[in-house]
Amino acid sequence: MVNVGYLDLTGCMALGITGPMLRATGLPHDLRKSDPYCGYEDYEFDVPVRDTCDAYGRLRVRIDEMYESLKIVEQAAAKLQGAQSSKSPVMIEDKKIAWPAQLAIGSDGMGNSLDHIREIMGTSMESLIHHFKLVTEGFKVPPGQAYVAIESPKGELGVHVVSDGGTRPYRAHFREPSFNNLQAVAAVCEGGQVGDVIVAVASIDPVMGGVDR
User: Fold this and answer.
1) Phi and psi of 145, rounded to 5°?
2) Residue 100 confidence (pLDDT)
């Protein structure tokens, strides 16, 4: 894997490559740090980088990210335990937005238990109605457009949506990182052996379902 699938920072920038491929060139670009969302600014974690620009460096970056993910999970679990002990809310209490009640898992481990459903229907009919309207109709979004991106395992996953004032997007477009990263196939295979193509493409780690999206 060493010196296989080489693609430096200049190549990544030219092709719009993000995620572990970019961080394997030495650039610590991670939207959770540069543009935090969903409370990531409250967690301590590092952005792993390597400077080898090859398949081995991308592998090492991904392995290092597993340890950083465990750090985040441990911190999140501690925050939930603290909220539970202090009886602080962990979700919004507005019944017009929140689910009708706390989730109670059924015996099969899937969905709400029957007793929980009976309780909702018997004691929280108003919440149930709001829940039904929320799921079937959705939110009414003012006319306009917005682009929001997150740091997915493959890189920058962005969504551009246009609203005409209804409850469904007028237009929606996804920036799928695997689609962009696949542009690097020719570059990472150039000058290598035929047998190296498998390693080079695997180091890109594309998700073809995302590419189709």
Assistant:
1) -145, 155
2) 58
